Every structure is written in C-alpha cells, then in structure tokens.
Amino acid sequence: MILDLNSLEDASKLSADICIIGAGAAGITLAREFVGSSCRVLLLEGGGLDAEPESQSLYESEVIGVPHCGIHTGRARVFGGTTTLWAGQALRFDANEFRQRSWIPYSGWPISREELEPYYERAEKVLGLGKRLSYAQLSALCNVRLPAFDTAGLSIECSQWSPWPNLGVKYRRELREADNVSVVVHANATSLVTNSTATGVERVEFRSLSGKQGTARARFYVICCGGIETARLLLVSNRSLPQGLGNRHDLVGRYFQDHLHIRCGEFCPADRKQLRDLFESFFIGRYKYAPKIALTEKIQAQRGLASAHAEIIFDAASDSTASAARELYRLARRRRSYNAGDIRRWLGAAAVEPTEPLRLAYRLYAKRRIPAPRRGAIYLGAQCEAVPNPNSRVTLGESRDRLNMPRAQLDWQVGEIERRTLNQLVGLIATDFERLKLGCFDTRQIDALKDADNWRTMISDSFHHMGTTRMHADPKLGVVNCNCQVHDVSNLYIGSCSVFPTSARSNPTLTALGLCLRIADRLKALLPAGE
User: Fold this and answer.
1) Which residues sit opposite 193 in a β-bridge?
2) I want to staple 508 with a disulfide (CB 3.0 to 4.6 A). Which of 63, 110, 235, 497 is the partner?
3) Predicted pLDDT at 366
C-alpha cells in the first residue's frame, strides 16, 4: 500500500521487519524482493509521488570545491528518485575495476566481479534490459563493416538502455497492491536513533514539511539514499556517537566521487555516413545499445591511468528537422513543457526538410539504428573514473533546511591521474581515427587537457554520487563491510552507490541494484519464512 504521512496521525508509530529509507531505484528494487512474502517491509520516501519544489529544496547544499551542478540538478526527492530524471543507461563494471590497482590509491573492493555476476543478471531484469551483445555482434546484425581499430589501447563495447527508466512509474502499482509492503511518502528521515553504544538502531525518526512526525521500528534498516544524503543522515544521527553513526573512524562523507565528464574536440569526418554507421546507437527490437570507446586494462596498467570511456556525440543543428523531431517527440511523451511559439518553430523546421522524417524512420526501423542528424557538429564526450581521495568529502554545513537538518556541504576534489587519463583517452582516439582515415579532431581543446592548472574548467560532473560510505573489510578503512552492513552496527545496511570503494567508468545504477539484491538475499536468510 502507499500512504502519505500528511494523512496519518501525528506522532504515528510504525513497525516492520525491514525499514528501507529512500524510494529511488535502490529502495524500490530492495522492497520488491519481499513482495508476497511474510516479511513486513516499510519504505520511507521523503518526497511525494510526483515532483514537488518544496521537497526538492531540501537538497539545497553548499559547494566549496570543484564546481558541482549535480548536487542540485542531479537528484530528485520523489518516489522513483533519480530514475525520474535519467534516461536508463546501464553497463556492468569491468572485472579489473573491482581489483586493487597499485597506481590507483585506495582501490580494490572486498568483493569481486565474479561474486556480483548473478546479481548483475537479476538487476538487468529489474531494468528490463535486453540480451547482452558485443559491439562486434551488433555491428554484424546491422551489416556494419568494422575497420581495424587499435585493440591494444582501446576497446569498444555497448551500454544498454532500459525501456522503462522511471522505476517509480514502472513498479508503483506492484508496491501499492502488495499486502506486506507499506510505502509512506513525505516521510523525511531525520535521525537514526541507536542504543547507548551505537551498535544497533532502535528506531528511525521522520517528518513531513507540514510538521507531521513519526517513528518506525524494525529488525533491520537499510539506507537507500544517494551518496550525499546517505552521508548526511549518518552524520546527523549523532545522539550516541557525537561524530555520527558509523563514523568511529571519521570516514563517513569522505572519498566522495563523481565521474568526470568532458565534451571536446569538434570532429571533421572524412565520411559522415561511415561515422554514423560505426557510432550511432543500435536499436534491436525495443532495446537500445550505445557504443563506448574505452581504455583497455593493459594501457591503464602500462601508463598508470584510471578507467575511462568516450562516445561520439552527433549534435543536431538547431534549425534541423532532426532537432525539431526530437523536441516534438519529447513533447508527445510529456517529458517537458513548451509554449506555442516553440511548437510553431519546430513544425516550421520540420517543413524545411520534408523528406527527413522518412529518412529517420527508415534508419530506425529498417537499419535498426538510432538515427544521427545529417547536419550539426560532432564531438567526443568522455567519462572518467574519479580517483578515491579522503579529502573529497561531504560534511555538514552551518545552514539548516526546513526540517532543521544541517545542509550538506560538498568539497569535490579531482587530481592529476584523472587529467592524464582524459588526455590519454582523447589522444588515443584522435590518433586512431586519423590512422583509419575517419577524420580529424580540432586539437585545441584536446591540448587544453595538458594544462595542469586550467584543465578543471573543461570538466563537469555526471550526477553519479559515490564513495561516501565506502566498502572495506577493515572498519578503519571503510564504513560498511563486504555485505554492505555498517561496521559495528548489527542491523544497519546501506544500499547505495555511496558504498563503492572506486567509481569505475560506467554509470553506477546497475551495480547499485546488484548490491541491493545481494543485501535482500542476506536479509532473507536472516529473516526466514514464517517470522
């Protein structure tokens, strides 16, 4: 069932076997694992069923390090969480990204890719992903002849895209109709209250913006918030441990990571159609696959680089039919609101090239490719793993929000390894494309990555907030153990990207869901049927 705290009695006392905090991708996935079982699940969500400016304002934070837009625009306090914003891109982490790499400080997970493999398969089903196909297989299906790419330094694989990215919409009915699952919206968790030794959580306190309060007791608690809110909640839960829950060794909030993203090097193709054939996204059945050009494990080790990949970005000219068609499609899907002037302009642009919609449809349905525009600039968009840094961190600021909770303060820091990685990735791609006579890049922006002082002006964050409650077997080096249980807190788990020791190069949601499914299996063992 789905309840609203604002409709419940004030000071409501709720109980369950498992209390999950946060109804984004992680929380929804975890709760679904218990639908129809004898286990009672309580899922607390701070926002409502739809986006609300008042709830979103609770995310207002202070940024004191490298500029970071995603702390505000990359989070959604609503049922469904950030899945209400993203496009659904998913890719497994590479096996080497789980291993300790001598050239990457603080690298190494206490679990392996092999251990997570079965959970990846289950997480892909949650997102409705299609069959895993290699770039070579997809190219063969679409009759694309591949040139002899540099396989020593670069590899090409494809990410997958969920056909139902908004999990709040996809699974709302299932959770509403579940007899053993109670979702409570507008229930903002404000504190985890522990016993006197801070070794066990006794209850969670929550409030709505209208002033309603409540508490929940459970046998187990799982925080399924993002990398910023998870750290903030633990830090404010300080009644028994002054420095915050799980923070005996001053690790909560440290090692904040986000993927660095750059867009550079306008590309002049020798043959635009050939480039589209090689790097347009594939559309097989109803499933989308997007090519990524990645640094190989070998070149990373040889040159001391982080993990990174890039994609070819085909921009549509603003006055093109392709651009107009995209905006009209979004309007039809109600993803954005537009005024009448915008609609008239797009319809006018579509009329200028009346045969272009036919080409786009032919490319999509006959050639099974997501059609790139015939006009517009071409760029390289690169995404790089962030190197773990204990001084890159989330702390509590001086100002408070409407719930009287200290706002988050973010000091995002990036370093030399990331700069060299982006420089090497872009340089290798530029060299290989020229060798293959695919075309050439404008090197001015590429050369700017050699500037150790000013290169940070080129980067942006990717809305991927990770690392603030890192996983490690040693409680002096991590907040949670290999089971995502908070060290020394027997009944508290964290199902979030915040537990990632390293960020790898790929979008984090799929890996986070895999970890949540792993937590679910552990809780099922601890809460056998019938209890």
Assistant:
1) 203
2) 497
3) 81
* pLDDT class of 271 with cuts at 50, 70, 90: very high
**Cα-Cα-Cα-Cα dihedral sign, residues 444, 447, 452, 458:** positive
Each residue of 254-264: pLDDT tens digit?
999 999 999 99
Tokens found for residue 484: 């995502």
Per-residue pLDDT reduced to its tens digit, 169-222:
999 999 999 999 999 999 999 999 999 999 999 999 999 999 999 999 999 999
* Average pLDDT rounded to a whole number, residues 423-447: 92
Q: Distances from the Cα of 89 to the Cαs of 119, 126, 135, 281, 517, in angstroms?
A: 17, 13, 16, 12, 19
Cβ atoms of 228 and 411 within 8 Å: the answer is no
405 CA to centre of own chain? 25
Please give the Cα distance from 344 to 342 (Å, whole number).
Answer: 6
pLDDT digits (tens, 9 = 90+) for 57-92: 999 999 999 999 999 999 999 999 999 999 999 999
* CA-closest candidate to residue 154, choices 382, 333, 445: 382
pLDDT at 337 > cutoff 60: no
d(CA 144, CA 152): 22
DSSP 257-316: B--EEEEE--EEES-HHHHHHHHSPEEETTEEEEEEEEE-HHHHHHHT---EEEEEEEPP
Among the four given CATH numbers 1.25.40.10, 3.40.50.2300, 3.40.50.150, 3.50.50.60, the one describing domain 1-127+164-255+463-531: 3.50.50.60
Chain centroid offset of residue 163 CA: 16
pLDDT of residue 265: 86
Q: Is the pLDDT of residue 272 over 50?
A: yes
Kindly state the tokens that stand for 102.
């001598």
Asked if residues 352 and 319 have their Cβ atoms less than 8 Å apart, the reply is yes
pTM assigned to the model: 0.93
Cα–Cα distance for residue pair 444/360, rounded to 1 Å = 33
336 phi and psi angles, rounded to 5 deg: -145, 165
Backbone angles phi, psi at 67, to 5 degrees: -50, 140
CA 499 to chain centre: 13
Per-state percent for the chain, helix, strand, coil, to nearest 5: 30, 25, 45
Question: Of 24, 80, 134, 49, which Cα lies nearest the Cα of 512?
Answer: 24
Q: Which residues pair with 214 in a beta bridge?
A: 12, 206
Half-sphere exposure of 51 (CA within 13 A, CB side): 14
Predicted local distance difference test score (pLDDT) of residue 454: 86
Q: What is the C-alpha separation between 204 and 481, in angstroms, rounded?
A: 22
Q: 344: Cβ–Cβ under 8 A, 6 or more apart, which residues?
A: none
Tokens coding 511:
């890996």
Tokens of 289: 């696959």
Record the tokens describing residue 526, joined without a space. Answer: 């601890």
Alpha-carbon distances, residue 92 vs 165, 204, 307 (angstroms): 16, 33, 13
- Alpha-carbon distance of 437 to 149, in angstroms, equals 11
DSSP 316: P
pLDDT at 4: 98
Determine the 3-state secondary structure of 179 from DSSP: coil
